């Protein structure tokens, strides 16, 4: 697979107008992607759980323009209202993908997007948002090429989503998605996220992710800036090698269902991600004091109760609690009793592993 495979040759059907609506979920990485080369090529492979409830629904109403004026034209609504702040990111995205979707310039698009999770909750909406947008654009392209196979449709959606936000390429399929070349994964690619095809132990079915909203404000350092700091990072080489090793280990854990080992890798990956931020030049810290308090509480709870509960972190202060479905009642009680105090306005989101995007 290479970039050329995603440049269409000829559209066979004339389309003048229509509406495409897709819902794409968020995802949480177990082995983290941090560091990239140009064109959103990841510096190391990653693997994630696709979530079920935290999602973006996007609708594009499209109409062929009378004159092909060579420019991109679109209106952007967020939850039904114009959202100018999002325009630059979408414009850049459209420019990046226009060679792969040459029809883009011929249409006026009215994009309306909404999230199931509260706006500015500190949950990154770029993964689900870019994935939903890419799927709507592929929906348009499929109408112009009705013979397109569904496997190609999903691969190209992931390819396009990646160009919007790297981790978005892991928000098309589910329940586990790999992205980036890795020697244990045949067909793995830096260009697209692919649903993991290996054996997965039943303990991971319906695995829970409860997201504790510790800090809902804007991040002090964007993920784009964070990735860039891996370029001259003193520990980059070791980190990328470690991600490859952790990915190999997690694949065998998926098969055996060994939660002790799962916890060790997942928590180490989360802390390593933040350690990379704390040791870059310039350095920065995205965790808050509450993040650390939650981590300590989790460690004590796990030791005393024996419940295989662990945490992971994104590029932010919020904490994702991962645990088997059968332990839900106990963990939710623990959250209410001991962790809610650390959440901004007592807010948390209950989610679980899900099957991937859906046409609405
Ligand atoms: O997709 P980006 O460029 O916002 O990068 C996000 C990277 C992490 O969320 C920190 C890790 C990951 O693999 O999702």
What does this structure look like?
The protein is α+β, with helices and mostly antiparallel strands and 360 residues long. It has two domains: 3-34 and 53-174, 2-Layer Sandwich (Ribosomal Protein S5, domain 2); 202-352, 2-Layer Sandwich (Alpha-Beta Plaits), CATH 3.30.70. The protein is 34% helix and 23% strand. The chain is built from eight helices and 14 strands. Strands 1, 4, 5, 6, 7, 8, 9 and 14 form an eight-stranded mixed sheet that branches. A four-stranded antiparallel sheet has the order 11-12-10-13. Helix 2 crosses helix 3 and helix 5 (236-256) runs antiparallel to helix 6. The longest helix is centred in the C-terminal third of the chain and has 21 residues, at 236-256. The radius of gyration is 20 Å and the shape is globular. The model has no long low-confidence stretch (mean pLDDT 95).
- What general outline do the C-alpha atoms trace? globular
* Hetero groups: (3R)-3-hydroxy-3-methyl-5-(phosphonooxy)pentanoic acid
Stretches where pLDDT is under 50 for at least 5 consecutive residues are none
Element-level helix/strand string:
EEEEEEHEHHEEEHHHHEEHEE
Number of domains: 2
Tell me roughly what share of residues is in helical segments.
Answer: 25-40%
What fraction strand? 15-25%
Number of strands: 14
Count of DSSP H/I helices:
8
Helix/strand/pairing class, anyone? Answer: alpha+beta
Gyration radius (Cα, Å) is: 20 Å
Largest sheet: 8 strands, mixed
Task: Return the average pLDDT rounded to an integer.
Answer: 95
* Secondary-structure arrangement, i.e. CATH architecture of the largest domain: 2-Layer Sandwich
CATH classification class of the largest domain:
Alpha Beta
